[in-house]
Amino acid sequence: MTQSEVESTDRRILELLAADGRMSFTDLGKATGLSTSAVHQRVKRLESRGMIRGYGATIDHEQLGLPLAAFISIRPIDPSQPDDSPERLQGIREIESCWSVAGEESYILKIRVPTPADLEDLLARIRSAANVATRTTIVLSTPYENRSVV
Amino acid sequence: MTQSEVESTDRRILELLAADGRMSFTDLGKATGLSTSAVHQRVKRLESRGMIRGYGATIDHEQLGLPLAAFISIRPIDPSQPDDSPERLQGIREIESCWSVAGEESYILKIRVPTPADLEDLLARIRSAANVATRTTIVLSTPYENRSVV
DNA sequence: AGTGAAACCCTACCAGC
DNA sequence: GCTGGTAGGGTTTCACT
User: pTM score > 0.85 for this model?
Assistant: First the structure.
């Protein structure tokens, strides 16, 4: 269904929750001029409609021992085979994101590992799991990431 | 209790909060075998140490009217100038992420817009704001994104 | 660091409009 | 869809270990 006209109050709620996923319904109510119950209703509706996919904590991976991030673009070695790379790679925990893209390569992966040696090992696992060639771009720093574009 | 046990409990808490940022301290306690107060203490410490950067709701951008995502790699036109692209681009709301990378280009941006026409407009704004050449890779679909790599 | 108790606040549900 | 009310549960602090 394409009846997705999100009105400004819902948009404001999404904006607030994108910035602080633990904000209480009471505070959301104060920020939007609605009662707690009304906000509660709206948030539950946004959740059930899938507009809110979920809630998560943002972790500092460098402090956690995963300082090395990289983009790995992949391309099938045998283009006659059906490309089910996402399913084949899904079990590899180091892969944070997988995007299907237009262009030279078929997918872009974003990964996190502790050390260059782990990256080398990961590349070998990706190549053999999905039968693909890879191109790797190392992330040097992250000025900002996952900002809300609501 | 030894140091490694402490570490693994914190790690478990981070894992749980990464998967569900609104999980209650009560439930975190049940999942880790700690009292509510102990979990509360640990989470507050993880927050103040910056291990937890924040909490956010994950929004379905397609439903929100932003179905077009893309990666834009940028490269300075005049390499003799200092490269302060991140600050110059920070005000552009369509840019969700900005990574400094090793390789042909200096930064990779991830952006979201409603239509191809908006992308065209955005590219012009990026080029003139940061004095850069751009290379754009359109995202066709997103099998998965921002999975927890804890 | 962890526990349990208590005060306080929030959530979730219910009528009623 | 919104409001106010309420019961139950969650959060936060505190004294103690």
Answer: yes
